[in-house]
UniProtKB/TrEMBL annotation:
UniProt xrefs under InterPro entries: Alkaline_phosphatase_core_sf (IPR017850), Phosphodiest/P_Trfase (IPR002591)
Name of the protein in its database record: Phosphodiesterase
Amino acid sequence: MPTCRNIPFSLPRAAVVPDYGANGLYGLVGAIRAYLDGQRWTVPGEERADSAQDEPAPVLVFLLIDGLGDAFLQRFGAGSALLANRRRRLTSVFPSTTASAVTTTLTGLAPARHGLTGWFIHDRRFGGVVAPLPMRKRSGGLIRRPMAPERLFPYPSLFQNRRRKSIYVNPRSIAYSPYSARHGRGADSVAYRGLQGMVAAIATAARALKSAAGGYIHAYYPVFDALSHAHGCESDEAVAQFRHIDAAFAALLDKLAGAGVEVVASADHGFIDSPAQRVIRFERFADAAAMLAGPLFGERRAALCELRRGAEDDFRSFVEAELAGKAVLVRSPELLRSGFFGPGPRHRQLRERIGSHALLMEAGWTITDSMPGEHAHRMIGVHGGLSPQEMWVPLIHARC
């Protein structure tokens, strides 16, 4: 599936359009799906030597390092094992955020199909705006309705009904959450603690799959993302964490040396920083907020909203007057038609989940609002938008 084309509307400056073919994360997952269905493993965009055609199926490891953008790797990765094994860059999906991109890696589905169009989605079946991954209402409290995971995530996982076996390696803190349980169906689940625990878990899983004539390991590491949110995407804390991750990656390659394993690493998105002076508090614009049918959802770098009937002209005038140089207003159906949310049959609630309009933020800018009962989270490092730093992620590939 090619990337988005023929875009008939304005975008933020230097915007990177998501690619749902060989140059995107979605295409990489498509190659993984083909491997799980019994085909020979080939990295998208790489030619495999003819001499490798008769080799036994390798054990394939996919390591998803949450938040590790390609720009960060290029800037801080000199001398690292991760940069040494980088092959090229890929785009994330849209929006460039964990809820959308990680779900794509666990399902092989684009956001248009799985329907997770941001950290927050609008779904009136669960009371309005909710965060699907932790299954929490934006106004506070867990979603506890019967069959809630099945209704929020009504699609198969990547691991189900495949010819090759899968093992899902996840931090212990989230390994048994409703989201992980739902998206890990069809795989054996392994929980770990810390980077060393992750490396040990992957190595053990690789040995088990090697004896079973091959298979797939999906491993997820979230700490770099958390530190980038809290301290900034180029903070000392984020850089130090990157060094720890790189050391763990090098140790993993050493443990797997000679074992017939291929390791692919990538990320769900990259980061930019949004300083406090570039955070737009939408509730301060009471007249504009009254033009919306409810609170913002999606992402603070790609905010989705539903305008009240007849309010579009006034709202567009507000954006042009108050948010010029800070945000671009786009009709959400135009984003959908232009392929930003990717291919495939559309989720039944997709129209509700993309709203009528999107506020696509310029570099460094975010927009937030507040709800009664909501605990506000201050974030320095942010993502979800279309900037190169957020959209480009590395494709790292090592043959052990």
